[in-house]
Write a structure and sequence with these properties.
This protein is of the alpha+beta class. It contains three helices and eleven strands. It is globular, with a radius of gyration of 17 Å. It starts with 8 loop residues before the first strand and ends in a 28-residue tail after the last strand.
Length: 185
């Protein structure tokens, strides 16, 4: 694909059980615009996908950036994610499963989209540009609506070939404890 010098912006998107947030970054990785809104997962998958698309368009509009200037979108989503195919495998706190997020966003914004687990995204960001820069192994714990996590070992994210796997919130701590949105304890 030929290089397009006009494509100088990236969106980082976080989909959580309670809120969704987007940041638009320029080529120097400086935040140009940011927006957030409630997820409202109970409204269903289609309404949720429309809210996501609208939020991403809002962040572009806030910076007066056209989608033709967008080099890519990175999405961090709660729960197990099929990062190869860009599918939210199951998001217990949203009640969603099998959601083809990458396909929806690539069609809407005509740019490459990566979909990974939010804990994996968070720990990788710290590893590359934050508090864990220069370290070989990093553990990240991310409490929110659920408890997510990510792990970098020898510079690589620990996950299976297709699915994120470091779901700390799914480690039973209390026998017979409260039920999770996924049905497990």
């Amino acid at each position: 694909m030929p290089k397009n010098d006009k494509k100088k912006y990236w969106i980082g998107f976080d989909l959580g059980g309670t809120k969704m947030a987007a940041c638009l970054f320029n080529e120097d990785f400086k935040i140009v615009a940011r927006e957030k809104k409630k997820t409202k997962a109970a409204d269903g998958v289609e309404a949720g996908l429309e809210r996501i698309t609208a939020l991403l368009q809002t962040v572009l509009d806030a910076a007066k950036v056209g989608k033709d200037e967008l080099a890519g979108i990175g999405c961090g989503c709660a729960g197990p994610v099929d990062h190869v195919n860009g599918i939210i495998a199951t998001a217990p706190n949203l009640g969603w499963s099998g959601v083809k997020l990458r396909k929806k966003l690539e069609n809407a914004f005509e740019c490459p989209v990566t979909v990974i687990n939010d804990g994996d995204a968070g720990v990788y960001a710290e590893f590359r540009r934050g508090a864990a820069r220069g370290k070989e192994s990093v553990l990240g714990v991310f409490p929110g609506t659920g408890v997510g996590g990510g792990y970098i070992y020898n510079g690589q994210s620990v996950r299976t070939n297709t699915i994120s796997c470091f779901e700390l919130g799914h480690i039973p701590l209390v026998p017979g404890g409260l039920r999770c949105g996924c049905g497990q304890r």
